[in-house]
Amino acid sequence: MNNRRPRRAAVTGIGVIAPNGMRTDAYWKSVSEGISVLDSVTREGCEQLPLRVAGEVRAFDPAALIEDRFLVQTDRFSHFAMAGAALALDDAGLGGEPAEPFSIGVVTAAGSGGGEFGQRELQKLWGRGSKFVGPYQSIAWFYAASTGQISIRGGFKGPCGVVANDEAGGLDSLAHAARAVERGTDVMVVGAAEAPLAPYSMVCQLGYPELSTLDDPARAYRPFTEKACGFVPAEGGALLVVEDESRARDRGVPVRATVAGHAATFTGASRWAESREGLARAIRGALDDAGCAPEEIDVVFADALGVPEADRAEALAISDALGAHGTRVPVTAPKTGIGRAYCAAPVLDTVAAVLAMEHGQVPPTPNVSDICHDLDLVMSRARPAELRTALVLSRGLMGSNAALVVRRGDDSAR
Amino acid sequence: MITTEVTYEELAALMKQAAGITVDPQELRQSAESPFDAFGLDSLGLLGIVGELENRYGASLPPDSERCRTPREFLNLVNSTLTAGA
Asked: In this complex, which of B20, B48, B54 lies closest to A68 when CB atoms are compared?
C-alpha cells in the first residue's frame, strides 16, 4: 500500500452488455446518436402481460462468452455480469490468471436476483416434484450469485460484496468498490447486471404503479414531459474495473475516470415528493465527498423516472443542491433509449458519463422532445462540451436515493 | 433397479448435462481414481447427477453417493445400489 498519498479509485476498464449494444464502442455510438431501442417485449410467456415495451438485450449469446460449467449453474443476470466483467478486465489489461489473487475483489449490486432460473426450477417443482429441482437453484437465484461467479471464474480472492439496496445500489456498489481501493485493495471489479424480463420477474414488476404500460415504444418512457407515464424496464448491465490510481499509472494503463464522491439517502417507497429532499441531500453529500463546488458539475445524468411527481422532485432537487447552476447545467437521460435496468441503470449511466467526458459530448435523451421543467435537458442530438466532472443520480422504487461524482481521468492527474 | 450398470459413458454424459463439464468417457475411465475436482465437478454438480440418476432409475441412492470423491468410487456405489435390488 502506498502511504505517501491517499489512494484514489480510478476507472480503468469498462464492460457493457446493454440493449443498445454490447461492448463499449457500440454502446457509446448508440447513446451518443440518441438511438432508442425500446421495443415490444418478445420474451416467451410474456405475450399476454400488460407490460408491452422493454429494453431487451437481443444479440447476447451467453454460450459464446461463458463456459458451460458456469452456464448451467447461473441465471441470465449472472451471464450478463460475467460477460461484462470479462470485457472490463480485458479493457483494463487484466484478463487471464491474476498474478496476485488476493489483490482483486468483486462487488455487484442486484435488484431481484435470478428470476428466470428460479421460474424454471419452480415449474419443475410444481409439475414434476421436488426431486426434479436441480441443486444449482440454491445459488443461481441469489443476489450474490454474480459476485460469487465472477470471483470464482476469475480466481479473485480479494474482498467481495453484494449490495442489495434497491436501484440506487448500482451507485452504492461503485462507492463500495472505491472505498475498498482506498483501504488497500488494488483492483475491484464492480457494477450490476439485471435480467428482469422473464415472465415470473415481469409479473413481479406489474405491481409497480410507476411501470409504463403503453404499447408504443416511442411514447412509453418520456420523463420530464407532460406526457410522462412511467418507466420502461430493461435488462443488461455494466461492469467496471476500478483500481488504485497510482497503480494504474505504474501499469501504464489509461485512467478513464476517477470515482470522486458519493452519498446516499432514503425517503421511502414511491414517496416521490419526499425524494426531492432526499436526492438533494445525496447530491450535496456527494459534492462534499468529492470536494466539488456545484459550479464544477459539467453534466448531470438524471434518474428520470418518468412519473410526473418524481420528475418534478428530481428537477427541484437538482436546483436545490446546485443552486442557479442547476438550471444551466446540461442534464441528460440516455436511459430513455434503452429503459431502466434497475440496479444496472445507474451503472450504465456512469459508463455513459465516463464516455461523455472522454468524447466531449453530452448524449441526448431519446424520445423526449419537449419538457415541462426548468432544466437544460439535452434532447434530439449530442451537445459538444468540455466535460471534466459528471454527476450521476439514481432513485430506487423502494426509496433509495444516491448521487455519484466522477471526474475525467486526465484531469485527476493534476 | 437395473440390469446393466451405469457406465463411464453415461457418467460423462451426466457430467455434461447436469454440470456443464465436457469430459471424454475414455479419459474418465482411465482417470477413474482422480478426484472429481480434477474434472471441474463440484459438490453441487455431483448432487445434481445423483438426483438425475435417482429420477432416471426410480431408486434412491445412499447419502454417501454425493460425497464420493472419484468416478470409480461413485460408480461402484451407484451400481452396487442399483443392481442390488435386481
From this structure: B20
Question: Is B86 a residue whose pLDDT tops 60?
Answer: no
Residue B2: inside a domain, yes or no?
no
- Is residue A349 within 8 A of residue A301, CB to CB? The reply is yes
What are A395's strand-pairing partners?
A: A401
Among the candidates A200, A235, A251, a domain finishes at: A251
CB contact under 8 A, A134 and B19: no
Which pLDDT belongs to residue A414?
A: 39
pTM score of the predicted model: 0.96
Question: What total of structural domains would you count in chain A?
Answer: 2
State the complex-level ipTM.
0.90
**CB-based burial, A68-97: b 16+ in 10 Å, e otherwise:** ebbebbbbbbbbbbbbbbbbbbebbebeee
Measured between CB atoms, does B58 come within 8 Å of chain A? Answer: no
Domain that holds residue B52: 8-85
Closest residue in B to A153 (Cα–Cα): B40
Q: What is the pLDDT of residue A5?
A: 61
Output the nine-digit C-alpha cell for A290.
Answer: 468529492
Work out the pLDDT band at A13, boundaries 50, 70, 90. Answer: very high
- Whose grid coordinates read 459438490? B43
Window 23-42 of B, Cβ < 8 Å to A? 40
pLDDT digits (tens, 9 = 90+) for A67-90: 999 999 999 999 999 999 999 999
Note whether A182 and A214 are same-domain residues. Answer: yes
B47 assigned to some structural domain: yes
CATH of the domain at B19: 1.10.1200.10
Report the CATH number that the domain containing residue A296 is assigned in CATH: 3.40.47.10
Cβ distance of A72 and B20 shorter than 8 Å: yes
CA distance A86 to A106: 12
Q: What percent of chain A has pLDDT over 70?
A: 98
